[in-house]
């Protein structure tokens, strides 16, 4: 029987999220909480900084209670499952209450996503607590991933159905993003330092009309500067976006002809969009992002047509500053967009053929309780 068809009783989940920087921590935790609630679970989401939820999820979500996680927070008794996101260390008093419970909760550490081989080796391993407030408990490592022996990827049960009824033109018009005849829509969400100037120069060079929809912050600033440097090319125009809700951001990715995404959660969402995308990994001082990018490209492009694979490889290398900045890059011609789009859809189909993260997590928790 597929794991998804096994009924799971409603459990109470405590999800802990510490906002380190950017929006990936809260973005992933919010998706997880909503995904759990959509499967009938009850979730308390403990966050040390809820600021980004004001734009990411202004309406909240049924079944998800957002709670402040401050130094002074006094916690209720732990629920049935505790998820700490990215090793964020729940409060010692809460850990002690977990250890003292008649039936201690299943304790999960949700890790970062990668396609590197260590993920398959490390997924579902236990870390027995030999000392400290949680002494005697085991913490389980849960690694998201792209293969059957990992924790999978966050994906809502209704995602494909929502995509099937998505009205691109109506949605774009409602955002003030009406496209002109034959205009390409390119969305950009990036870190400071992304070679936006190379993108703008490449798009300007082929003269096709292009609308660059840019996320607040680095993308909006860098695109504005790049267009000014190029002398405001007639074919390119920019639409600086406000922060969108998470579901609005997903729709932007469904609507665009080409997406530039970053980090973790927007990277996954670009994969669900099934549109050509270029991913900027979170840059790390020790260069750890290099192998992370290489592993993902090797896996996701393994069966792609050679021209599509080359376009994505070259642009990903450039976008992560891993190539010669003077090198020429493949143009985003209609043919290139069609080929990379076909590769993106084939990769998405491969991923949707296996169970999503929450289905796998529910099965894991059932086994450990
Ligand atoms: C641009 C935009 C993003 N979002 C959401 C989508 C995602 O959930 C979130 C952005 O998260 P990411 O794509 O992961 O990129 P990020 O760079 O913000 O987060 C990063 O934070 C670092 C600390 C981690 O180490 C990285 O792995 C990564 O998660 O913001 C919106 O909801 N609306 C928007 O308009």
From TrEMBL:
GO molecular function: protein-arginine rhamnosyltransferase activity; translation elongation factor activity
Keywords: Elongation factor, Glycosyltransferase, Protein biosynthesis, Transferase
Family the UniProt entry places it in: Belongs to the glycosyltransferase 104 family.
InterPro entries the record matches: EarP (IPR016633)
A Pfam family reported for this protein in Swiss-Prot or TrEMBL: EarP
Catalytic activity: dTDP-beta-L-rhamnose + L-arginyl-[protein] = N(omega)-(alpha-L-rhamnosyl)-L-arginyl-[protein] + dTDP + H(+)
Function: Protein-arginine rhamnosyltransferase that catalyzes the transfer of a single rhamnose to elongation factor P (EF-P) on 'Lys-32', a modification required for EF-P-dependent rescue of polyproline stalled ribosomes.
Protein name: Protein-arginine rhamnosyltransferase
